[in-house]
Amino acid sequence: MIRSAAPTQHNFDILIIGSGLAGLTAALLLAPGRRVAVLTKRELSDGSSNWAQGGMAAVLAEGDTLEQHVRDTLIAGAGLCDLAATRAVIEGAPHAIAWLRSLGVAFSEDSEHPGELHLTREGGHSQRRIAHAADATGAVVQRTLIEQVRRAPNITVFEHHMLVDLITDRQLKRPGNQCHGAHVLDVNTGAVVTFGASHTILATGGAGKVYLYSTNPDTATGDGIAAAWRAGCRVSNMEFIQFHPTCLYHPHAKSFLISEAVRGEGGRLLLPDGTRFMPAHDARAELAPRDVVARAIDFEMKKHGLDCVYLDISHQSPAFLHEHFPNILQRCLELGIDITKQPIPVVPAAHYTCGGVLTDLAGRTDLAGLYAIGETACTGLHGANRLASNSLVECVVRARAAAQAIEAAGSGTPKPVLDLPAWDESQVTDADEVVVISHNWDELRRFMWNYVGIVRTTKRLERAAHRITLLHSEIQEFYANFRVSRDLLELRNLLQVADLIVRSAYGRHESRGLHFSRDYPELAERAVPTVLVPTLERGSSNN
Fold it and tell me: CA 145, CA 60: separation in Å to the nearest integer?
């Protein structure tokens, strides 16, 4: 059921902010017997989950083991993975895929063994264990879940509704450390409405749009991470931003990803003259983890002054490419690239936020009643570098764990939802020059790409921190004096996330996983996660 909100308080048992795989899974698991609201700032299908091409990693094949999957994850995570978190997701992965299949998700089957899943292999995996739906797994999964959500009688969907801030005891000037809901912008009307709930789940995805080049959709602006930080939650490992090695390089292609599975099926990375370069960088060549491949491409591009490198899969038959990569083949054809005969021009691009809101294994944050799941959260699974195709399955496993925790918490007498204050905009006016937002947005994303990208230095981080300080004062003045809009809120959140990334990177005096510093090229003896703690005073905001 799709509804538009009036400027009043809406009360629900569960408030889920975000409509990707994590959010919709939680909604479906919690809906029986509960009133659930799902908020999404655009439409249900507009999120990173829908863009995921590769698949979902799980031990499903004969000869593969949970221990091998755990070991591959730990190796990719460069010593920073939490073992308990890793085991929990990997052990729950087969059940997650079975659950999705029971809902009707049509994963690709093995042509030689009807009824069995076709499993592919991706960088960092020692076995074929990636269940997929051709090269559009996320879209297929999302379509199925959206259909289920639309039919669920206890789930109300609010599209074009964006999180402004969480409502906490601190903001209400009352004792306690609980989240009671959120203030939310109705983008269609411009009104800020109040949502009250006993349990709030942040499932807003990552923050890839903080960089100039990203594989993420425009919605990936770190909204949940920034809001949780402002509300008093710790964040962890924000310096570990995964850059996908192979984003399509074309002036008319926006954020189009060339799946990891292309390299998993034998794709080779080449210089313009046809020279293969990955074996010189790593013994695993094209199947090395993403951070290794991304740095190798970055090195070769800078060394030779290139705009891009090339990924060649043309040795596979046209029939094979049509079966396994139909969307990539079609999109490239539309741009004049026939991947059955030509290599694909590619560049690295910001892809995945490995850090996020610090949670336990059930998604609980530092605030009672507030949970974070999916890319918004940091449980320790991904460590210093996410292993390919672990993230979609993590969404399902963590959503189930959060749902079980909420069910356990609500087994007694449910707490009544408070009468929350309405949003006060009596002291603000309509913005006079919105060009400030677009200019600052562009500046932020450019200096983050140049100074806080694949290769970092202390001087670059200091430059970025200086620019963030200047932009912060401008945006805070704008936020304090003018009515909020989606663009303003997204810029405010991106600026907050950029600050968290820079702070985290500046404090890591080593090179580990996705964080590579020319000033500290060696690996420290001990692997220690980065944890940032907000300093809050009652009645103030942490920006």
Answer: 22
